[in-house]
């Protein structure tokens, strides 16, 4: 059985889609959801899906080895960032080399880096007059959005599209592709 841990800071819609994708499977299990935000919507979703939640604070994340230790003790095979807003510390990256992935709501290397998440990305795409956007699934390293790219999918940015319009298109790509790519990474199918 392959075991996944999801890290999320927000609503948890991608985390929920991932959990639903693997529900009832005997070869892959979403074992834990980690969050740094005690008000995150992902908590309610995790409870509904009966996935245990691990809370942590900034000090624990950056100045202790507690998080990598929990992941290793639980036999986690893949760490999945799904709307997680903190830069991953080197100790965690080193504990899971090429076993930690992220999804970014743009076509990297454009519109990545510190502060480029969610609505900020979609606003930048529209303001730049881009004709396409999309998603990038990539391995995590010590820098925001700079790990090796695993998969990208594109969507049109039509004239007159607002950042909210782009967000809807990008979310559809996230929900369609992130669970599938995770499955391929874990099972080779």
UniProtKB/TrEMBL annotation:
<comment type="function">
    <text>Catalyzes the transfer of a formyl group from 10-formyltetrahydrofolate to 5-phospho-ribosyl-glycinamide (GAR), producing 5-phospho-ribosyl-N-formylglycinamide (FGAR) and tetrahydrofolate.</text>
</comment>
<dbReference type="InterPro" id="IPR001555">
    <property type="entry name" value="GART_AS"/>
</dbReference>
<protein>
    <recommendedName>
        <fullName>Phosphoribosylglycinamide formyltransferase</fullName>
        <ecNumber>2.1.2.2</ecNumber>
    </recommendedName>
</protein>
<feature type="domain" description="Formyl transferase N-terminal">
    <location>
        <begin position="2"/>
        <end position="182"/>
    </location>
</feature>
<feature type="binding site">
    <location>
        <begin position="12"/>
        <end position="14"/>
    </location>
    <ligand>
        <name>N(1)-(5-phospho-beta-D-ribosyl)glycinamide</name>
    </ligand>
</feature>
<comment type="similarity">
    <text>Belongs to the GART family.</text>
</comment>
<dbReference type="GO" id="GO:0004644">
    <property type="term" value="F:phosphoribosylglycinamide formyltransferase activity"/>
</dbReference>
<dbReference type="Pfam" id="PF00551">
    <property type="entry name" value="Formyl_trans_N"/>
</dbReference>
<dbReference type="InterPro" id="IPR004607">
    <property type="entry name" value="GART"/>
</dbReference>
<dbReference type="InterPro" id="IPR002376">
    <property type="entry name" value="Formyl_transf_N"/>
</dbReference>
<feature type="binding site">
    <location>
        <position position="102"/>
    </location>
    <ligand>
        <name>(6R)-10-formyltetrahydrofolate</name>
    </ligand>
</feature>
<feature type="active site" description="Proton donor">
    <location>
        <position position="104"/>
    </location>
</feature>
<keyword id="KW-0658">Purine biosynthesis</keyword>
<comment type="pathway">
    <text>Purine metabolism; IMP biosynthesis via de novo pathway; N(2)-formyl-N(1)-(5-phospho-D-ribosyl)glycinamide from N(1)-(5-phospho-D-ribosyl)glycinamide (10-formyl THF route): step 1/1.</text>
</comment>
<dbReference type="InterPro" id="IPR036477">
    <property type="entry name" value="Formyl_transf_N_sf"/>
</dbReference>
<keyword id="KW-0808">Transferase</keyword>
<feature type="site" description="Raises pKa of active site His">
    <location>
        <position position="145"/>
    </location>
</feature>
């Amino acid at each position: 059985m392959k075991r996944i841990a999801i890290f999320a800071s927000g609503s948890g819609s991608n985390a929920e889609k991932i959990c639903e994708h693997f529900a009832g499977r005997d070869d892959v299990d979403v074992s834990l959801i980690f969050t740094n935000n005690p008000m995150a919507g992902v908590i309610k979703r995790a409870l509904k899906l009966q996935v245990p939640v691990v809370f942590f604070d900034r000090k624990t994340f950056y100045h202790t080895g507690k998080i990598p230790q929990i992941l290793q003790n639980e036999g986690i095979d893949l760490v999945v960032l799904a709307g997680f807003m903190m830069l991953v510390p080197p100790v965690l990256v080193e504990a899971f080399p090429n076993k930690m992935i992220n999804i970014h709501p743009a076509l990297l290397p454009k519109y990545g880096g510190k502060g480029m998440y969610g609505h900020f990305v979609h606003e930048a795409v529209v303001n730049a007059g881009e004709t396409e956007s999309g998603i990038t699934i990539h391995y995590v390293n010590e820098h925001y959005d700079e790990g090796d790219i695993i998969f990208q999918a594109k969507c049109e940015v039509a004239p007159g599209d607002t950042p909210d319009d782009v967000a809807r298109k990008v979310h559809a790509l996230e929900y369609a592709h992130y669970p599938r790519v995770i499955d391929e990474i874990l099972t080779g199918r």
